[in-house]
Design goal:
- By secondary structure, the chain is α/β, with parallel strands linked by helices.
- Helices cover 41% and strands 14% of the residues.
- It has a 6-stranded parallel beta sheet with strand order 2-1-3-4-5-10, sandwiched between helices. Strands 6-7-8-9-11 form a 5-stranded mixed beta sheet, with helices on both faces.
- Helix 2 crosses helix 4 and helix 6 packs across helix 13.
- The chain is elongated and about 75 Å long.
- The N and C termini lie far apart (88 Å).
- The N terminus is likely disordered.
């Protein structure tokens, strides 16, 4: 039989039934009161609306953090008519380009409590069409499409949500597209080599069927012309996005033009092949020949001998900008047309000893 004393509160204990109940969840009104603003202003600040000052936004976010406020997603959807989810469809099978873009987009959307749904179209437009249908059934607020290269078909103007195209532009000029400035990137590489005192500069592009390859060469040619120079061989040589092409192209160039003192490569893979070939030929890098790559692919540039100077496409920034443009479009302020994001040069030992 149970001892009745065990059912009595311990002497000196002040705990009551109310104390054992969970604490009340903070509401938006609590956050607004703590921040000294109206409920509507608090809501705008937490949803990333642009019509709130930075100071007010910071006060509201601090109050929400201190109160451990977590907005109810269902309530937000019912009030706003939005799902606070966005779909991202990628055609980059390797993830080398889409992963940093995704990271940048997630950073930007996270500030506004927007979730991202990732779909891999695997380069198949029929699969892409199915994924668009599924995302719309999930009532996403917008869609980001990350292409592989070149202008790609639009997924349509008659969709109920806005769409932003990243890395590869939509063929429809009425769509919102943001891409890397490949022409500017080629110009950066050539200008750097000219500044390093190089005068016999060759251009080894990648696959010419990809728009990025001739565009990068175009920028390099323009920079050389501005410096009163012509590329070795009279123009760019094209091949593939591979180390094999870099080795073969380099051997061909050096055998025909042994006084070549620099090479602009269309990708880091091509540049790695060039470095191998120059080593085989007994040419010191950068003393005899300077080399630049493109993509700033960490696994390649840091493992090169010497470390490779390369063009960084700022893909995380591309993702962040794409997320910003999509959010603006969702809020009724689209920016149709083509926008180009500047690249940056990352100097390493392959051009500067």
């Amino acid at each position: 039989m149970e001892d009745r004393d065990q059912r009595r509160p311990r002497e000196g204990s002040s705990k009551t039934l109310a104390d054992s109940l969970p604490a009340r969840t903070a509401t938006l009104s609590d956050v607004a009161r703590a921040a000294g603003v109206s409920v509507s202003t608090a809501s705008k600040a937490l949803n990333g609306r642009p019509d709130v000052s930075g100071t007010t936004r910071a006060k509201v976010q601090q109050a929400a953090e201190e109160l451990a406020f977590s907005p109810n997603s269902l309530a937000r959807s019912l009030v706003s008519g939005r799902s606070f989810t966005v779909g991202l469809i990628t055609h980059d099978l390797e993830g080398r380009f889409s992963t940093p873009i995704l990271m940048g987009a997630e950073d930007a959307f996270g500030l506004n409590n927007i979730s991202l749904l990732l779909c891999d179209a695997r380069g198949d437009y029929l699969r892409e069409r199915h994924q668009v249908k599924v995302l719309l059934e999930r009532r996403v607020d917008g869609i980001i499409v990350v292409g592989a290269d070149n202008a790609r078909p639009s997924i349509g103007r008659d969709l109920p949500v806005p769409v932003v195209y990243l890395y590869a532009a939509s063929a429809d000029p009425a769509d919102i597209s943001i891409i890397s400035d490949n022409v500017g990137a080629g110009r950066l590489a050539a200008e750097h080599l000219v500044d390093c005192g190089r005068r016999r500069i060759a251009i080894l592009g990648g696959d010419p069927t990809y728009g990025a390859s001739p565009e990068r060469a175009e920028g390099a040619m323009a920079a050389l012309a501005a410096a009163g120079l012509e590329p070795v061989g009279g123009g760019p040589l094209y091949g593939s996005w591979s180390e094999e092409w870099g080795r073969g192209g380099c051997h061909a160039l050096i055998s025909q033009y042994p006084d070549t003192d620099a090479m602009i490569c269309g990708s880091d893979q091509v540049a790695r092949g060039v470095l191998d070939a120059l080593r085989d030929l007994g040419r010191a890098v950068p003393d005899d020949v300077a080399v630049t790559g493109h993509d700033n692919w960490k696994i390649l540039v840091s493992g090169s001998r010497p470390p490779l100077t390369s063009i960084d496409m700022n893909l995380e920034d591309l993702g962040r900008l794409g997320a910003t443009r999509l959010r603006e479009a969702i809020e009724g302020h689209p920016s149709p047309g083509l926008e180009k994001l500047a690249c940056r040069l990352v100097v390493r030992g392959s051009t500067v000893g």
